[in-house]
């Protein structure tokens, strides 16, 4: 794909019609993005969690019997290390805390703790409800469960610290999925939508929406209801994001800017 600047429209279908009594500070910004590079991605990967560390992608994939955590060279798509899960587990979100990875599971109530370098299992945590997305802001973990509420968790014990209701224009934003914590904001995929939302963790307010429908079209999986946008990894050195989707054959490095930025 050529270097493009794409204006993100705010799709009305993003938001479920459940109005909350809250003092929301107005509509979110429509974010702009530029595609820097289009890279290969394993089209058999049901991407659930994505992060970048020292130039290497760490990817968690889902589906029973196919779930795994692996390290990937973002430029070539080559799998460098692969650690499959037991077939009883459905892999979900992934976060890095120091020299550890924490991987959620969907309905099993287990967060797996892995060694960052070897991907060997070194422990686990238990939690109630479903696990969807996970990110670490340097102090605490943020976790999604497919609702409009994020939970804050202790990175050492996984104990529940609090909850955050996410709204946009006073409307609850449901199906929050894969998360990435970046410079004081939480970025979240909205499951089965082409939008990524930027959330203020202090208020729960959506401050920006990126419409990635052009990436979904370019990925060539419009006819597959499971091949949805999912996967956000921040590259602090370049100031870019890596974005992909479940079963996509392409990974996009993009630069996101505010309007007028």
Automatic annotation (TrEMBL):
Has the keyword DNA damage been applied to this entry? no
Q: What is the lineage of its organism?
A: Bacteria, Pseudomonadati, Gemmatimonadota, Longimicrobiia, Gaopeijiales
Q: Which keywords does this chain's UniProt record carry?
A: Signal
Top-rank taxon = Bacteria
Protein name in the entry: Glutaminyl-peptide cyclotransferase
Indicate the secretion signal residues.
1-21
Pfam families from the UniProt entry: Glu_cyclase_2
């Amino acid at each position: 794909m050529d270097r493009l600047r794409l204006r993100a429209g705010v799709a009305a279908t993003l938001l479920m019609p459940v109005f909350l009594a809250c003092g929301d500070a107005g509509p979110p910004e429509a974010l702009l993005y530029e595609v820097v590079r289009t890279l290969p991605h394993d089209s058999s990967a049901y991407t659930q969690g994505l992060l970048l560390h020292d130039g290497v992608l760490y990817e968690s994939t889902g589906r029973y019997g196919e779930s795994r955590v692996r390290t990937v060279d973002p430029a070539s798509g080559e799998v460098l290390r692969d650690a499959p899960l037991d077939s009883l587990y459905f892999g979900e979100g992934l976060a890095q805390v120091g020299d550890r990875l924490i991987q959620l599971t969907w309905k099993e109530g287990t967060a797996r703790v892995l060694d960052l370098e070897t991907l060997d299992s070194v422990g686990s945590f238990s939690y109630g409800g479903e696990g969807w997305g996970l990110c670490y802001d340097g102090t605490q973990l943020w976790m999604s469960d497919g609702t409009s509420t994020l939970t804050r968790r202790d990175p050492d014990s996984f104990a529940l610290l609090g909850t955050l209701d996410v709204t946009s224009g006073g409307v609850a934003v449901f199906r929050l999925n894969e998360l990435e914590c970046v410079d004081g904001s939480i970025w979240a995929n909205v499951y089965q939508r082409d939008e990524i939302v930027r959330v203020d963790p202090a208020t729960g307010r959506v401050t920006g929406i990126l419409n990635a429908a052009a990436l979904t079209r370019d990925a060539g999986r419009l006819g597959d209801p499971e091949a949805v946008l999912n996967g956000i990894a921040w590259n602090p050195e370049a100031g870019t994001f890596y974005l992909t989707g479940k079963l996509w054959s392409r990974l996009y490095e993009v630069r996101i800017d505010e309007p007028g930025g």
